[in-house]
Design the sequence.
């Protein structure tokens, strides 16, 4: 089975702090995604990567950056956390085929005070 | 452009009764369609997908979905609901014409199965 691991399930940070959310997948998937999930808004794509060192902005990239130095690891960075970034963050991966489904991690619930 | 709509925020059904969770989509070309389930404080899990072929797709946990091209729908169904099916369900679409890897998700439907 594909395993997507998000390093932190729950985080509490203060406004202005730099936050790193780490995601690792073990199935050699080319594509990796970061979404945020908020009640009533569904899943919104923050960033997408289709290869090492390659990234594309999603629908809501403002206030976020990403890093993909190795194929299996995709990091989401909040340079200066703000209270409106309190949310559930979901990492996912998929094969390069467009018919491939996404495999999700368990999520990281971030609270910014 | 691609979009998906889940017209119901919540669906209530009694245990043992059939359930339907609705999804309609819009794409420029041909769609790939997916259903995912999310249990509380967990990530999404893949249930089933329609790529091509038979319009009735069977998936995990006894769920199935019917692709209807004329109605641009992909409703999720189960003949007999279980209390353990209570969860948040997401429909997703990907337009294969443009070759995009990125799916668009609906806002989710909360399924509540009453004992």
Sequence:
């Amino acid at each position: 089975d594909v395993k997507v691991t998000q390093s932190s399930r729950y985080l509490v940070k203060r406004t202005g702090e730099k936050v790193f959310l780490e995601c690792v997948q073990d199935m050699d998937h080319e594509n990796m995604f970061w979404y945020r999930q908020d009640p009533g808004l569904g899943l919104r794509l923050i960033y997408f990567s289709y290869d090492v060192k390659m990234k594309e902005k999603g629908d809501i990239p403002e206030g976020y950056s990403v890093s993909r130095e190795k194929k299996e690891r995709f990091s989401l960075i909040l340079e200066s956390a703000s209270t409106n970034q309190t949310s559930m963050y979901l990492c996912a991966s998929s094969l390069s085929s467009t018919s491939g489904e996404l495999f999700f991690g368990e999520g990281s619930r971030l609270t910014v005070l | 452009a691609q979009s998906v709509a889940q017209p119901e925020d919540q669906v209530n059904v009694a245990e043992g009764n059939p359930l339907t969770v609705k999804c309609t989509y819009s794409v420029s070309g041909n769609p790939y369609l997916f259903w995912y389930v999310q249990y509380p404080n967990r990530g999404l899990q893949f249930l089933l997908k329609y790529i091509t072929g038979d319009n009735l797709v069977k998936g995990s946990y006894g769920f199935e979905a019917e692709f209807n091209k004329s109605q641009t729908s992909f409703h999720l169904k189960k003949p007999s609901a279980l209390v353990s099916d209570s969860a948040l369900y997401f429909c997703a679409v990907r337009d294969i014409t443009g070759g995009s890897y990125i799916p668009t998700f609906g806002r989710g439907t909360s399924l509540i199965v009453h004992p």
Q: What stands out?
A: Residues 83 and 112 of chain A are 5 Å apart (CA to CA). The longest strand of chain A covers residues 42-51. The mean pLDDT of chain A is 93. Chain A has no helices and twelve strands.
